[in-house]
Amino acid sequence: MDFFMSQESLTALEWILRAVIGFIFLLVIAKLMGQRSIAQLRFLDFVMALLIGNIMAHPLSDEGLGLKGSMLTMGTLVALYLIGVYISLHSTFIRKILDPSPIKLIHNGEILIKNLKKARIPLDSLLSELRKKQIEEVDKVALALWESGGEISFFLKPQHQPVTGKDQGLAPKRFDLPLPIIEDGKINGSQLMSLQKDDTWLHNHLKTTYDVTVHEVLLATIDKNEKIKIYLYK
Predict the structure, then answer these.
(1) Is the domain 179-232 a CATH 3.30.240.20 member?
(2) Cα end-to-end span (Å), the chain
(3) Which CATH number does 103-160 carry?
(4) pTM for the whole thing?
(5) To which H or E segment does residue 107 belong?
């Protein structure tokens, strides 16, 4: 365990062991912090990301620094992070500090310049986000909000919203998510079992319908009507 402490020099194997332990420790830390900190980099998450990256990078590149101090520091920071998340869930005041309220950027087709400056968003960036949402004119937007996670939410005026089945008086269809039964040339046995099907049924279906084998299929999905759609290797 000498590689765990500070040393004047480390062998190649000790460097590798230090990197492996550091990697596993970071995985544990990320798991403790939860999926929100990965999916949505908010203010508190951003601070943690900066600190953790800086703290863990040094002992992985400098043999004069041990892992023990960095791991204790990171453990303390994660504990403080979890406490901060817990408090923010139970305190409106703290939540407003850690997760600020959305900033209104567009209201009723008008760009709010003061709020744009407050959010430190250049006009070009706002127009770019509009293009990404396939919104060609600002006056089509009823409301645009700069969220605390860094995204911009757009809400179109009623006359510019796409027509839905409800608007046309059509009976709604039940949503059905196709299930993957073949992935990368391998049969997903658990999905077939849930459909009360077996490998033999799938092999026969592929042969008679598409004249292919399982190993030729990159992805195959099946819907509620037992219709199979396949995607072959190219």
Answers:
(1) yes
(2) 49
(3) 3.30.240.20
(4) 0.56
(5) strand 103-107
